[in-house]
């Protein structure tokens, strides 16, 4: 099998991966494995913006407090404060690169760029590029990455697993090229920026969601995973069974949008004093309950009262996209449903992105830093990508320590797997997760999910062991193992907290006096014991 030597290997090219590559490449050469599909990943579809303390009327303590409330008692306060305090510097860096943030038209404004407000925030602190922030940031970062002489981009490769030396340290990744040939990229340090796990579910808010492949690859090397049960469902994805998914930004509610049930009535006012601006877990459960109560396939998000000029000004992308699908949002309410959106759990890391496996780092949605706790607050995700990518790059600033130890290898089989069979297995997995492990989970549903996923795993495992490696099969196997770990984590949390709601244990568990609720921590060995 061909091998090549690298210094810093970054897997994933969204906002987190590109930010790290640009910072690390000023010190060490970087190889960036970035398949073309990364252009359609979660970063590009982040509409609302980036939360940061930028206005003179705002302060760090307020942002910290709002994040802790949204995280429902499970945030790591040290990680929250670190992220919040690093936010303004990260925004200044983006401005220096030329990200075209939307300016405030008010000449009397105390901050030159327009700041919006989203659910859970007590102040306007979301800087944005109209309603397409992710796309603008990604395009700007990609422009600079392409121009950097110390960054080599491999867009012809897909990573399928990680490589360990005999000491168990990460030393790179095994990849497939576009012809299906295997090759090994050996590296002194490897960084996973592979995204979350929304693709475990039938409906997600981006057209090409990750399915936790990076999380599972890290777990196979022994990395600790944390808080997998906290999968965020965005309350408002455009309802259109015939078309691709499209996110209706949180900022639409931040600017005054009203949620209406099938009877045309606002329902959030009676449930939470923050109404439509309550944290996402509360809003998503409320929408789900309304749909269950009325039998409706969706609810409505109404912004007609804002007026067409304001709608076109604040939400040009959303307005244009909905118009392309036959919906005039200035004259009609928008049909919306919750959809899998963001994984608050992932690879457990420190403030520098380091995992529990030496020389393996994780940043962005693949990581669990402690920032989000049991529920991510709106627009803290791009902030986390930027802050932890910059922090991880600083950690990588020391001299490289390449391994001289022998590397673990894996034999490849020769069985050719029908791609249609892989698709059927993946669809079955998504149906199981969507039916039993979504916005509301019951004990009997989790039991059923565990049994069905175990059976599916027994069908797939022999094929994985005998098959010629291919990217769809590797992705399925990683996703299936992560789905089983997610069910295990959900079953173990005997309470309802944040994004994890189980009517069989509907209240917070009582913690010992003076202590905080514990995050869930899992290793792949926990899954193997259940096989």
UniProtKB/TrEMBL annotation:
Pfam families: FAD_binding_2, Succ_DH_flav_C
Enzyme class: oxidoreductase
Location (main, coarse): cytoplasm
Ranges of residues in domain Fumarate reductase/succinate dehydrogenase flavoprotein-like C-terminal: 427-507
Reaction(s) catalysed by this chain's protein: L-aspartate + O2 = iminosuccinate + H2O2
A GO MF term: L-aspartate oxidase activity
GO biological process terms, semicolon-separated: 'de novo' NAD+ biosynthetic process from L-aspartate
Cofactor(s) the protein requires to work: FAD
Keyword Oxidoreductase attributed: yes
InterPro entries linked: FAD-dep_OxRdtase_2_FAD-bd, FAD/NAD-bd_sf, Fum_R/Succ_DH_flav-like_C_sf, Fum_Rdtase/Succ_DH_flav-like_C, NadB, Succ_DH/fumarate_Rdtase_cat_sf
Role: Catalyzes the oxidation of L-aspartate to iminoaspartate.
NCBIfam families: nadB (TIGR00551)
The protein's name: L-aspartate oxidase
Source organism (scientific name): Billgrantia endophytica
Chain's gene name: nadB
């Amino acid at each position: 099998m061909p091998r090549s030597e690298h210094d810093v290997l970054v897997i994933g090219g969204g906002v987190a991966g590109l930010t790290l590559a640009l910072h690390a490449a000023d010190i060490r050469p970087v190889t960036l494995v970035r398949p073309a599909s990364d252009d359609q990943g979660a970063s590009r579809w982040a509409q609302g913006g980036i939360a940061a303390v930028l206005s003179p009327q705002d302060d760090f303590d307020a942002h910290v407090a709002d994040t802790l409330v949204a995280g429902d008692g499970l945030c790591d306060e040290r990680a929250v404060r670190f992220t919040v305090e690093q936010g303004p510097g990260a925004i200044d860096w983006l401005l220096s690169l030329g990200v075209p943030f939307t300016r405030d038209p008010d000449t009397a404004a105390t901050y030159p760029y327009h700041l919006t407000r989203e659910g859970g925030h007590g102040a306007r602190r979301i800087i944005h590029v109209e309603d397409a922030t992710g796309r603008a940031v990604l395009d700007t970062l990609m422009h600079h990455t392409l121009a950097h002489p110390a960054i080599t981009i491999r867009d012809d490769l897909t990573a399928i697993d990680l490589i360990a030396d005999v000491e168990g340290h990460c030393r790179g990744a095994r990849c497939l090229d576009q012809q299906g040939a295997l090759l090994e990229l050996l590296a002194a340090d490897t960084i996973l920026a592979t995204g979350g796990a929304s693709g475990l579910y039938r409906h997600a808010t981006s057209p090409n969601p990750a399915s936790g492949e990076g999380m599972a690859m890290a777990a196979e090397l022994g990395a600790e995973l944390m808080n997998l049960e906290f999968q965020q469902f965005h309350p408002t994805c455009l309802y259109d069974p015939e078309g691709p998914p499209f996110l209706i930004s949180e900022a639409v509610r931040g600017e005054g949008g009203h949620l209406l049930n099938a009877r045309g009535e606002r329902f959030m006012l009676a449930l939470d004093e923050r109404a439509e601006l309550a944290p996402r877990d509360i809003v998503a459960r409320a929408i789900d309950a309304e749909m269950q109560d009325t039998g409706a396939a969706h609810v409505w998000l109404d912004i007609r009262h804002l007026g067409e000029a304001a709608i076109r000004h604040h939400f040009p992308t959303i307005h244009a996209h909905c118009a392309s699908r036959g919906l005039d949002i200035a004259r009609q309410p928008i049909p919306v449903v919750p959809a899998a959106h963001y994984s608050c759990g992932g690879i457990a890391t420190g403030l520098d992105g380091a995992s529990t496996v030496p020389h393996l780092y994780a940043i962005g949605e693949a990581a669990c830093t402690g920032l989000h706790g049991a529920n991510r607050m709106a627009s803290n995700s791009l902030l986390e990508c930027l802050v932890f990518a910059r922090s991880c790059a600083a950690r990588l600033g020391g001299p490289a320590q390449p391994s001289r130890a022998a590397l673990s290898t894996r034999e490849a089989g020769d069985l050719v797997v029908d791609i249609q069979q892989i698709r059927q297995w993946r669809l079955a997995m998504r149906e199981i997760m969507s039916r039993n492990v979504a916005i509301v989970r019951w004990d009997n549903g989790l039991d059923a999910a565990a049994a069905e996923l175990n059976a599916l795993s027994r069908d797939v495992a022999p094929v994985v062991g005998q098959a010629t490696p291919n990217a769809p099969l590797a992705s399925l196997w990683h996703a299936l193992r992560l789905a089983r770990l997610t069910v295990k984590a959900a079953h173990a949390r005997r309470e309802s907290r944040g994004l994890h709601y189980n009517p069989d244990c509907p209240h917070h568990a009582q913690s010992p006096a003076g202590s905080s609720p514990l995050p869930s921590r899992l290793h792949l060995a926990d899954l193997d014991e259940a096989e």
